[in-house]
Amino acid sequence: MADLELDPNPEGYDTEAVDKWVSENTQSLVPPFKWYRLEGGHSNLTYRIDDANGKQAVIRRPPQGVLLPKAHDMSREWALISALGPTSVPVPEAIGFCEDPDVIGAWFYIMGMINGSPLYKGEDTQAIVPENMRTITANSFIDVLADLHSLDPDEIGLGELGKKENYVGRQLKTWYRSWTSSVEPAQFDDPRAHELKDFFLENMPDQGMARVVHGDYGLHNVLIGADSKIAAVVDWEISTLGDPLADLAYALNPWPDPSDAIPPDPESATAQPGFPGRLAMAARYGERTGRDLSQLDYYIGFNRWKTAAIVHGVYGRYMAGQKSTEGVDLETLRSRISLSLDLSEQAVSRLTG
Which among 160, 162, 200 is positioned nearest to 341, based on CA atoms? Predict the structure, then answer.
């Protein structure tokens, strides 16, 4: 963070209004603030703010302009970090939440600053986590997810976070609709997308008790501390209630395993030497939670299929001219759709064969 530049005019914020609101509504920060723009965090406008005593915090608000319903949900993120703060799941301190749009024109919240770094690519892993500490990172990563999935949402005040039933069924409906609506603009269909959707609908395991699911749990959405462990989980804006095994499979999919037929991308964060394989991490989750993982390949296949549908939609928007293709390798993007369906088929084959 030392190389961040002071920003005297932070985008989307009235600094004097924020100073006044903080003075009146929080106890742990003393304005005025120094503002430093932070990258990442999707497209939310995220800044580090340093108070008059040098205490650091992070402020987030949605991007400016018209937003889709439920997009960039500040109240959801605030509810999650507030509820999880007293638990074993590491999250930033919940400092203050403003739902008065008259202050800066949008809701915003302030959370504690965590000294840690996400991992996006292999070069991040190499720079931040020593090879002899990567097993510690991987174990901490899976243990935090296991701890999240061990919490009863009703007991921690998150019982109304979302619908509890039929999480995978609802996801299948959403992303199959995305696939079919993208076929014409993408000028590309694949019969496997339809066949796999039918398989997942017809063979859906019993969900069991709903848990909080992060929805995008990965090394890009955690902060790794100096001890190589997970210091905090961030970006909770699409979290809901649902099937924890679907959340687990999503988290595991980027992790390669020696048993894989297709070698991993050597530039990915998880493909670096020193990490345990995907199967070892799944086994650790099973031991920590006591959950039956015999149907895990169902969830792995489902998530691969979902990835294909997501990329298919993006590809369709490019092909329809809705997004600039400058600097975009459309052939590689299209091949990712097929590869995701290949990997989904492989998971189904392991399950049925």
Answer: 200
Domains and CATH numbers, the chain: 15-112 (3.30.200.20), 122-352 (3.90.1200.10)
**pLDDT at site 36:** 96
Question: Could you tell me which residues come within 8 angstroms of residue 60 by beta carbon, excluding any fewer than 6 positions away?
Answer: 41, 44, 45, 46, 74, 77, 108, 109, 111
DSSP string for residues in 277-297: PHHHHHHHHHHHH----TTHH
* Alpha-carbon radius of gyration of the chain: 21
Query: pLDDT tens digit string along 96-148?
Result: 999 998 999 999 999 999 999 999 999 999 999 999 999 999 999 999 999 99
The Cα 92–Cα 75 span in angstroms is: 15
Q: How far apart are CA 271 and CA 185, in angstroms?
A: 34
Q: Vertex 353, ends 191 and 251: CA angle to 5°?
A: 70
**Cα–Cα dist 116/234, whole Å:** 11
Q: What is the pTM of this model?
A: 0.91
Closest CA to 347 of 309, 310, 299: 299
